[in-house]
Amino acid sequence: MRILDKYLAIMFIANLIAAICIFFSLYIIIDLFSHLDEILKNGLNLVALRTYYFAFMPKIFVEIAPIASLLSIVYTLSRLNKTNEIIAMRSSGLSIWQINKVVLICGLAISCLIFFINEKVVPNSQYKLLEIKAKEMDKKSARLREQPIKNTAIYGLDNRLFFLSLFDPKNNSLSGIVVLEQDENQNVLSKIVASRGEFKEGRWIFYDCITYKYSKNNELEGEPSYVTAKVMDFKDTPLDIRKQQLQISYMNIKQLKDYRVRLSSSNALKILRGFDIEIQKRLAFPLSTVILMFLSIPISLSLRKKGQIIFSLGVSMGLAFLYYVLNSISIAFGKEGYLPIIISAWLANGLFFVVGWLLSRNLP
Description:
Elements: H1 3-34, H2 36-42, H3 46-82, H4 85-91, H5 96-137, E1 149-155, E2 160-168, E3 173-182, E4 188-200, E5 203-214, E6 220-232, H6 238-242, H7 253-263, H8 269-284, H9 288-300, H10 308-335, H11 341-360
Antiparallel strand pairs: 1-2, 2-3, 3-4, 4-5, 5-6
Helix pairs in contact: 1-3, 1-5, 3-5, 3-9, 3-10, 5-9, 7-8, 8-11, 9-10, 9-11, 10-11
């Protein structure tokens, strides 16, 4: 590595660490004060708070790393530009991209790190975070996986939709059960209502079970049938229901794909589309770091006037805000079916890359 590359890399990394530390501190302080009433009410000690925020750190890093990287490169280049060091580098025959090559490589490395943490660390840390909340803040001594699940809906196998008032994982029992069996077009074929159910020897048994049959016109066919106990031919297990505790935002890509495969036969198209967009979003978001850095380079080098560092930092924050707004809008449009899945997840990255490329062409 050239001495110049080492110089730029050290300056960028130093600014990056400072930015991350500042954002970490602000994030924790804001979160701490927003939950101060809960903390005082439950009498949390410093050890519990330290454990809580340590589990929170991977999620915070994933969220702040792109903005911290953006501010770091903007500050680094603006400072070099203000002291005419960029002009000296250009005078030696180096192009803008030769100068910034090492910084962009650092940005790519940060993108890879974000992807790794988001896939391997965040799901476990978020689950741990929920357990801490359940134990410390909600005063529940049992582990989260043993907590009853209330008022949940499950998209099951064989085109079934489950609505459950209560699922108790301790004894694998259900209460307040409604099951809709659908065809490939999501028309209701039958509705099963039961007061309770339990899982025994690999099978579900429903009690006080009433079954309603429907025609293709969604009209009730015949009289409902009632039995005191009925063995159900369902492939869904208590483990599938227990997974409802793990929100989509806490799943990694493999878990999302596995869960999507399990739901693929249900023909719940809107739900499946949401899973597809979430998977593409997990792939696209880490690259936002290097994309925003790429766009910030021509902006940082375009000014050399007094106060340009503050102005450039303001512009970079505006760009970050605009990126997140555009990304949120495109994701929302994609989930509603107004945009194709790939375009929905990658629109912000693609548009900002094109803008950065166009601006870079105007650099001297």
